[in-house]
Specification:
alpha+beta; 6-stranded antiparallel β-sheet; 8 helices; 28% helix; 18% strand; binds the ligand COc1cc(C(=O)NC2CCN(C)CC2)ccc1Nc1cc2c(cn1)c(C)nn2-c1cc(Cl)cc(CCC(N)=O)c1
Length: 295
């Protein structure tokens, strides 16, 4: 008999933080893992947040509570233009509430679904912004470990913001290698599959998967079966279409190097010839639906 998953209780129309400040529940924005996301409106400051709400009932009897604490501990002190802003955290007997920067243009998932392969200038724009965010994290000894299209959010000016620190970890000392990762990253690196110890290089691998997916239109290792996808990752089996050009092929090959030690450090990604080619400083929101015409 399958054990019934406890139903999360309905969230009240108004929730209060530990200072008694009211937040009015707005639209349901989506869900992920144990969390549901709603607009939470602070009338006093006239700001709407992305409220990530996690039911405590769903966290009972597992180490999920520690994982939420770890996510908050890592995310709360971050401040960077390409990292989702952490605006607060509070709880009541039912739920944990995390106030996050609302990104009205959602994530790269929707952009990718709508557009498929992007133009090279758009790909360089997105990849460089994400790389800047990763560089900020790595400089603070933080590995994100779950970089994927769904965790790159877009604000109303189409600026990319790395979010969801649910699988992130802090590296304690210089050459430490993490041995475990509780969760299944979408763009999982070979060394994680091989349980060979992993560190900052897993984020560089994921950036390579994001770059490839945005430029080619499909993920590098995607197949119909997870087992076959994992086999291809471990054997580094993927194709680079000749149409993307040599400079793009070179940066993809090095980001997706099987050996983590062969991948570039995140701070060196921008030095590739590919990224010296035209890259817009801004993207119009029309890019959400149509390829832009760069003059
Ligand atoms: C206005 O801002 C948004 C709107 C929407 C949206 O329109 N969602 C619709 C809601 C109705 N259903 C039917 C279709 C999707 C979705 C996301 C928005 N913004 C938005 C959502 C955000 C964030 C910032 N900003 C952050 C940070 N974390 N999350 C977050 C958190 C969770 Cl737990 C789940 C999801 C959904 C899955 C995903 N990765 O997008 C998102």
């Amino acid at each position: 008999m399958a054990t019934k998953k406890p139903l999360a209780k309905e969230i009240p129309d108004v929730v209060y933080d530990d200072k008694g400040k009211p937040y009015k529940k707005g639209r349901f924005l989506g869900k992920g893992g144990f969390a549901r996301c709603y607009e939470l409106y602070d009338r006093q400051r006239n700001i709407t947040f992305a409220g990530k709400i996690i039911s405590k009932h769903l966290l009972k009897g597992s180490n999920q509570k520690e994982k939420v604490t770890q996510e908050v501990t890592i995310h709360r002190d971050l401040c960077h233009p390409h990292v989702v802003r952490f605006d607060g955290y509070f709880e009541d007997p039912e739920n944990i509430y995390i106030l996050l920067e609302l990104c009205p243009r959602r994530s790269l998932v929707e952009l990718h679904k709508r557009r498929g392969a992007l133009t090279p200038p758009e790909v360089r724009y997105m990849t460089l912004q994400i790389a800047e965010g990763i560089e900020y994290l790595h400089a603070r000894a933080i590995i994100h470990r779950d970089l994927k299209l769904a965790n790159v959010f877009l604000n109303d000016r189409m600026i990319a913001k790395i979010g969801d620190f649910g699988l992130a970890t802090m590296m304690e000392k210089g050459n430490e290698r993490k041995k475990t990762l509780c969760g299944t990253p979408n763009y999982i690196a070979p060394e994680v599959l091989e349980k060979a110890g992993h560190a900052f290089e897993v984020d560089v691998w994921a950036l390579g998967c994001i770059l490839y997916t945005l430029l080619v239109g499909t993920p590098p290792f995607e197949t119909k079966s997870l087992q076959e996808t994992y086999r291809r990752i471990k054997s580094n089996q993927y194709r680079i279409p000749s149409t993307i050009g040599n400079t793009a092929a070179k940066v993809i090959r090095e980001l997706l190097a099987a050996n983590p030690a062969s991948r570039p450090k995140i701070g060196d990604v921008r030095k590739y010839a590919y990224f010296t080619e035209y890259t817009p400083t801004h993207l119009p929101t029309s890019c959400l639906t149509l390829p832009p015409k760069f003059s």
